[in-house]
Amino acid sequence: MKFRTILKGLDATEILHPQDKSTIEKLNRIPGFKTIVDKTIVNIMEKYAEIEYSAEGINVTSKSMPAIHRQLMEACRVLDMKDIPACSTDWFYDISSFTVGEQKKRMVLQSGTIDLLTSDELLFVMGHELGHMKCGHKTYHMFAEALYMPIANSDLKVWMSLVRMPLLNWYRVSDFTADRMGLLCCQDINVAFSTMIKMAGLPQKYYGQEHIKSFIQQAIEFNQKYSGTMDRLIKYLSINAAAMPWLVMRASELWSWYSSGEYDRILDKSKRLK
After folding, report:
1. For the chain, what is the mean pLDDT?
2. C-alpha–C-alpha distance, residues 126 and 60, integer Å
3. Which residues are CB-contacts of 249 (< 8 A; sequence separation ≥ 6)?
4. What's the CA angle centered on 47, arms 46 and 53, to 5 degrees?
5. Residue 244's pLDDT is what?
């Protein structure tokens, strides 16, 4: 079993992507806003998810899927998370996952995620999802998702449209932060990038032949080549329109953070605290 540094007392604010941090701070400064959202939208969506995924998916436990359960325990151990979320699988043959809940947290892993990733790559995905929880994203994620519910198409439609665009942009940017948490969880930049390569569309026949350096170079060139005003506008609009940020964009952001030395600084800090 690979030795991983336990990130004791990990301060999530140190991990936040600048745009992520700025938006969360603004939302948290709105008097009573988070409390209201938690008691209304979050409460309803948590109950809905608990019923839906208990009925539709398979709960991951030490008996039903012991290997996956052990990995979840390992991910929580490394990220120093005492509040272990419920976890379940759902049938969809793609590499994807998501979380729901603030008080009743749940991670959902699509079946393709488990089949197509190695155990270390799955740890990166789990760390990414746990990162959303640890960084305080879930309340505002669920609020953003609620903007697509029927109420958002009522008489509040104009006001909702003004809120939706910046909030949706933050929703996608929060993945940049979660990728940092995924890396801190698996503690191997090559594993993080091999996961992203598979998610970006690597044909299964080429699994085991991932060329990490080529993907890193593509990520670096993406940042260098598309940095003009029009390029930034297109990136912004694409983030809002996509189910998630482009994988190369995510890789570029993760590589920049890793190269800055912040990743090593956080690990070294945890080692010194032992």
Report:
1. 86
2. 13
3. 222, 235, 239
4. 85
5. 55
